[in-house]
Design a protein that fits this description.
Layout (H helix, E strand, L loop, with lengths): L1 H9 L1 H16 L6 H18 L2 E6 L11 E5 L6 H8 L5 E5 L8 H7 L3 E3 L4 H17 L3 E4 L22 H6 L3 E7 L3 H4 L6 E7 L5 H4 L4 H19 L1
Helix pairs in contact: 2-3, 2-5, 3-4
Length: about 240
């Protein structure tokens, strides 16, 4: 929390500049393309990363699907730095699926709007299904790339241990019939989870994609277990 407050204080003038700019970009998709919006988003996360005194090492960038095919990244969730760490290393425009309540918080709201991401309700099953269907359509038809945290949240006493994945979020991949890219985060809880301003290093590991043919006959629970298993193995390997 100390580092989070430190970043807010040091970047207060940048926040006053970038938040309205992100809102403006989001409101005018006819003027600003997805590439434009993503470039702005990466500029913002780059400043956060630098100010927070965080170094992030990237592994497996060669595993990210090439071309214009849509895909979904499923990552373990450790803290507020997770999306910053992943997006900073992911050059192709991508967006996020975020809890509706959390996405309405100042800065998070403008960021999700900028990326034209999806918000999912934790209490309304009908809206959950609709959101996942909309995601699947965007990935399949518009060739978009999404980042999803299937744990649905993170513990305050986080460590490099994954929690149970929510099986339902894998429905969007099934409907889109797209590649699944497991992403392993290591020490990503440290930047904003530890009460310290010391420099920290985190790791992001992009694992080989899982093609639709590999999971087409599986149930969502089986897909979830497979993805979690691969992430757990990568965490153990790179820790």
């Amino acid at each position: 929390m100390l580092r989070f407050i430190y970043v807010i204080i040091l970047r207060i003038f940048s926040i006053m500049y970038f938040v309205p700019k992100m809102a403006h970009y989001a409101k005018h998709p006819e003027k600003y393309s997805e590439d434009d919006c993503y470039a702005l988003a990466r500029k913002v996360v780059g400043k956060v990363k630098k100010t927070a005194r965080v170094t992030t090492e990237y592994y497996g960038l060669e595993n990210l699907p090439e071309g214009d095919e849509g895909y979904i990244m499923f990552s373990n969730h450790q803290g507020k730095y997770d999306a910053v760490g992943i997006l900073n290393g992911h050059k192709r425009p991508c967006t996020v699926l975020m809890d509706e309540k959390r996405s309405k918080v100042f800065i998070s709201k403008q960021f999700v709007d900028l990326l034209h991401g999806q918000r999912i309700s934790r209490t309304n099953p009908i809206m959950q299904v609709k959101t996942l269907r909309d995601m699947a359509r965007e990935v399949a038809e518009d060739k978009r790339v999404y980042l999803v945290f299937p744990e649905g949240g993170y513990r305050k006493d986080q460590d490099n241990v994954t929690n149970e994945f929510k099986h339902g979020c894998f429905l969007c991949a099934q409907r889109a019939k797209c590649p699944i890219v497991p992403v392993a985060l290591i020490d990503s809880y440290k930047p904003f989870g530890l009460n310290s301003l010391k420099r920290v290093t985190t790791k992001v590991v992009f694992l080989p994609p899982i093609s639709y043919s590999e999971y087409s006959e599986m149930k969502t629970a089986e897909i979830s277990d497979m993805v979690k298993g691969r992430i757990d193995a990568a965490i153990k390997e790179y820790t």
